Amino acid sequence: MKKIFFLTAMALVLFSCKTASITNAKTDRSAQVALKGNWVINSVTYPGSEYIKVNSFQIADSQCFVGSAWKFVSNNNKGTMALTKFDCPAFSSPITWYINANGEFVLKVLDAGEKAKKVRDGYILYVANQTESSFQLIDKIEVGGKLTDVVYQFQRAN
Q1: Helices and strands: H and E segment counts in the chain
Q2: Domain that holds residue 40
Q3: Which residue, 1, 52, 78, 79, has fewest beta-carbon neighbours within 10 Å?
Q4: DSSP 30-48
Q5: Is residue 20 part of a domain?
Q6: Buried b (16+ CB within 10 A) or exposed e, 39-77
Q7: pLDDT, tens digit, for every residue of 88-141?
Q8: Residues 6+ apart with CB under 8 A from 110
Q9: Rounded to two decimals, what is the model's pTM?
C-alpha cells in the first residue's frame, strides 16, 4: 500500500512539474496566414556587421541570405528557401515553420525527402514589424558575452 501511494505521489509531482514546450504552444493563425506567399530577404543587419561574420542557420554567412527567396505555405506550415546570391554557396531546401502565440517563429530546415518530425534541431526567431508587404525575423546571437539581434528584413516578392 505504501508503494502504491509513493508511486502515485511521484507521478503527480512529475506530471505537475512539466514545463511548457515552445513546440506545444498554440499557433498564431492570423500571423501565419499573413506570411503566405513568396518573400525575399532584402537586408540582414546587426551591430558590428562590418567586423563580425555570422553563420546563419548553419548554412552560410548572413550576407548570403540577402536576396534569398522564401515561400511560406500557411495551411500546412511548409515552404522552401533558396540562396541566390553570387559568390555564395548554392543552397535550396524545404522548410517547416509556424508562429506560436508568443510571436516566436519556429523554423526547421529539412533535407530533401526528410520528414519534419525526424528533424530535432530548429531555430526560434521573433517576428517583428509585420505588415502586408514586409516583416522582420530577429535572431538572438551571443557576441562578446552579450546577446545581439540579427535582423532579417523580408519584403513580399512580386
Answers
A1: 2, 10
A2: 26-156
A3: 1
A4: HHHHHT-EEEEEEEEE-TT
A5: no
A6: bbbeebebeeeeeeebebbebbbbbbbbbbebbbbbeeb
A7: 999 999 999 999 988 899 998 886 544 444 455 689 999 999 999 999 999 998
A8: 93, 94, 95, 96, 116, 119
A9: 0.77
The candidate with the shortest Cα–Cα distance to 153, out of 139, 141, 137, is: 137
Query: Residue 38 belongs to a domain with what CATH number?
Result: 2.40.128.280
Q: Which of 3-7, 28-32, 46-50, 146-150 has the lowest mean pLDDT?
A: 3-7
The size of the chain, in residues, is: 158
Cell of 92: 535550396
Residue 113: CB partners within 8 Å, gap ≥ 6? none
Q: Is residue 4 part of a domain?
A: no
User: How many domains in the chain?
Assistant: 1
**Would residue 32 count as lying in a domain?**
yes
